[in-house]
């Protein structure tokens, strides 16, 4: 494997306890860090991006969206996608930062243990990156 490919692969390999979210029991939910890739053919969870990746400062869950990044379409699609995939109402998901960026921080209000398990299962099901 070329050195560049090895370098890229390690950014997608999750560290043992590296998660793209933090449980916030005080607020009753989870703070989720995502990297949005708009304008794709299908909306889906794509990869766990390691904090070692130069594009990010903290681990992030990469989400591909079919919506374009125009006039808030991608933000709206992200909230709808997460609500559907996590079984939450759209009103329980708040975009805290990154409205005009690919790097977004969201707050998911709900049972923290249930959300933690759902997100862990999603991350574990992601295909390994080569």
The main β sheet shows up as: 6 strands, mixed
What is the subunit organization of this protein? single chain
Q: What would CATH call the class?
A: Alpha Beta
CATH fold description:
Conserved Hypothetical Protein Mth637, Chain: A
In helices, the fraction of residues equals: 25-40%
Report Rg. Answer: 14 Å
Element string (H = helix, E = strand): HEEEEHEEH
Q: Tell me the number of structural domains.
A: 1
Kindly estimate the percentage of residues that lie in beta strands according to DSSP: 25-35%
Q: Taking all residues together, what is the mean pLDDT? A: 88
Give the second-level CATH assignment, the architecture.
2-Layer Sandwich
Termini separation (Å)? Answer: 9 Å
State the helix count. 3
List the helices and strands and how they pair.
Blueprint: H1 3-12, E1 21-24, E2 29-37, E3 44-49, E4 60-64, H2 73-86, E5 93-97, E6 103-109, H3 112-125
Parallel strand pairs: 2-4
Antiparallel strand pairs: 1-2, 2-6, 3-4, 5-6
Main features:
29% helix, Conserved Hypothetical Protein Mth637, Chain: A, globular, 6 strands, alpha+beta, single chain, six-stranded mixed β-sheet
